Amino acid sequence: MRRSFRFLLRPTAKQTVALTACLDDHRALYDAALEHRRTVYTKAGVSIRYGDQSADLKHIRADDADGQGRWSFSSQKATLRRLDKAFTAFFARVRAGRTPGFPRFKGENRFDTIQWPKNGDGCRWDSQPEHPTATFVRLQGVGHVRVHQHRAVRGTIKTISVKREGIRWYVILSCDDVPAASLPATGTTAGIDLGVASLATTSDGEHLVNPRHLTASADRLAAAQRELALKKRGSKRRRKAVARLAALHGKVRRQRLDGAHKAALALVAAYDVIVHEDLRIANMTRSASGTLQAPGTNVAQKSGLNRSILDAGWGVFLTILSHKVESAGRELIAVNPANTSRTCARCGHCAKENRITQAEFFCTACGHAAHADVNAARNILRAGLALRDAAQAA
């Protein structure tokens, strides 16, 4: 299977300058290639392809030896492929009748990743294996950059990417043939109901805590945002204020990611089969503001609910859970969430009146009482096992 390994880089001050210059030059190459495509099509009606621009890259590097010529030829070709993929996706959206979204020029804060398509071609992982305590990655034009390697890399390294997040730099290794770390069978199954009060509730009655990292950092984020609003655009102080705000948001993102990993790992270690709701999170968090002619209702309440859902990080959690389930040799099933919170897990009676409050469930038919999320999780588990049985029978 394919897996990614992400590590924090520890560049020196000089290497940080070189990494920033490398990123800026790749962004300039991307924008120049986009402008080339637009100009040629506008004036001559001819579509420029990746092969044409890749062939021109050799001359660009020769004419700018101290600029574009400093960096890896393979990484620059990967940047041109990135633009080609953007155009491919654009034309696919046009053919499908969706909002196209023409490829845009990349501003300074909209281009943060460089990729080397092959380990050893312009980059090399573990470039100083003789070093007794540290790991390094060598990047052409930058040098040997120290890596904070907190776990072993498994499989065969296929691509190496460097990503900037605020003031931090990360290296991302995409590896093939990563061996699965199968866990021993437990003989247990569970359904999970995602929520806001608790991140997830299992059919066994366990509640996984929702840390609410964004809410906990709300005061500091608001203060940083107010400070940013007072700074003059283009000033050095504004750039520092932007960096401080980005650092706070980055911390919240890392906290949420860490919590999702721990919660998913606990579920995978405890259960052989895990069933969850197949949620459409993007639809659930749409704004209720509406239009001027047809304004929405309960806009403030919907806005607060959207913020709570996004703070819980359901999408991140489910993505991580699916990866860990695959790696551990477990089974993950997604079911339609319709009426799972209104249906009695004991008798099957479905009615809106069964859900008394957000946390209480009382069946109006048989009198069954339970925590609403636990009742929903049991319905989710039953639906998932029924789907699995039907698939096995077919």
From TrEMBL:
Alphabetized InterPro entries for the sequence: Cas12f1-like_TNB, RNA-guided_DNA_endo/Transpos, Transposase
Family recorded in the similarity comment: In the C-terminal section; belongs to the transposase 35 family. In the N-terminal section; belongs to the transposase 2 family.
Domain (Probable transposase IS891/IS1136/IS1341): residue spans on this chain: 183-287
Keywords: DNA recombination, DNA-binding, Endonuclease, Hydrolase, Nuclease, Transposition
Highest taxon in the source lineage: Bacteria
Organism (species): Sphaerisporangium rhizosphaerae
The Cas12f1-like TNB domain, residue ranges: 314-380
Name used for this protein in its record: RNA-guided endonuclease InsQ/TnpB family protein
GO MF terms, alphabetically ordered: endonuclease activity
